[in-house]
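hey so i finally got around to running the thing on that chain from the lab meeting. sorry it took forever, my laptop kept dying and i had to restart like 3 times. anyway pasting the input first so we r on the same page abt which one it is
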Amino acid sequence: ELESLAGAELAAAAGIETEDESMLEKLIGIYMGIEGYGTEAASRDHLNELRYRFLIDGGEQVFEMDNGEPDEEGEFLYPLQNEIKEGYEYSLTTDAHGMITKVRELPREKILYIPPVKGVPGEMTLRNFLKLAMEPVGTVLYIYGGGWNWQDDAASVQAKSIGVSADWIRFFREQNAGFTYRDRDGDESKKDAPSSYYPYGGYNEYYYAGLDCSGYAGWVIYQLLNTENGNDGYVTFASGTAKLLADAGLGTLKKVNTVKPGDVVSLGGHVWISLGTCSDGSVVLVHSTPSFSREGQPGGGVQISAAGFSEDCEAYALADAYMSRFFPEWYSRYAACLKDPETYFLFDKDDLGVFSWDTEAEGGIKDPEGIQKMGAEQVLELIFGG
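ok and heres what got predicted. didnt touch it at all, straight out
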C-alpha cells in the first residue's frame, strides 16, 4: 500500500514531516539590514521579533526570519542570521506565512588577495604562529563584535574558517580613510545607527565585516590548531584569551611586565600578540585595535603597532617601517599606532596576564628557530624574509 503513495503522502505515512513545496516561495533579494536598526524595537530585547529588509525587484520588502532550533539552554541558534550579510545577494525561501526559512548566498566576483606573509594551518611552530598572525594585517578593519557570531556568544563562521575571509577583504576595499566603526569624528553626539557599523542593537549585525581584538586572536589560534573549517572556535572575551590557552595546557600565564615573541597578552578590555621587545624596552605587537585614520575618523583594525613612551622608540620605527613597506594601501589610510606600555601591561584583575607558550611540552608548539630568545627586529626579519 505504501508503494502506491508518492511524495508528501509517502512521507506522511512513514511519520516524516516535510514541507509542502507548493506552499514555498523562492525569491532573489539583496539584504539591506534590520528594520529600525538602532531603535528600541530593534534591540536585543526583541531579538526574536526582528524583521529583515531585502531589496527585491527594485523595491524593499520586509520579512520575519526563522530563528532556528534552541540549544540545550533554550537559546536559539539563529543559523540564517549567521549567514546573511548586508549588501550581499541571496536566494530566499519563504513559507506559507512569508517567513524566510532558507537563504543561499549567490555567487559574486572572486576576491584575490595574497598576503605578504602566509602561514600553514595546523603547523605547530612559533614561527608559523606569528606568520599566521600576519595574514590579516593591513587588510581587515576593526569591527566591534567582528569575529563573534551574530548573537554574540561564540565565534563567527569566518573566525572558524581557514584563511583570511573574502568578506573582510571585500569590506576593506569598499571603504576608505573616511571609514568609522562607530560615530563620525569619534563624537557620540553624531551617533547615527543606520549609517554606523557599531552593534547598537546589542547583536553583531556586521559580524562578518572585520575583526575586533578577541575575534582576531581567536582567528589566529584557530589557524594554528586546525586544518579545516567549522570546528569549535576560540573567540572569547579579551580578558580570557590568555587564560584559555593556559587552561588548555599549552603554556603558562603570569603577571609580568615583559614579553617574549609569540606571547599572548590579555588585559581587561584588550588582547594582543607580542612580536618581541627592542633594546630600549619598547615592544612591537600585532592586534586588532581602533585607531584614527589620516582623516581623523575612528577606524583601524589588524595592524603592527608599538608599545612605547614616544614615537622615538625603536618599536615605533619598526612598526612604521613594516606597515609602510608591506601594507601601503593600509598605510595610506592609517599611520603606525603607538600604545602606552603602562596600560598594555595593566593586569588589575584575576586571570589577566601574559601567556607564554611551553615549547617543550609534548604535542605543543615548537620553537626550532629559537624565536623566544630573539629581539623584535630579528623576529620581523625572520617572519618577512629579511
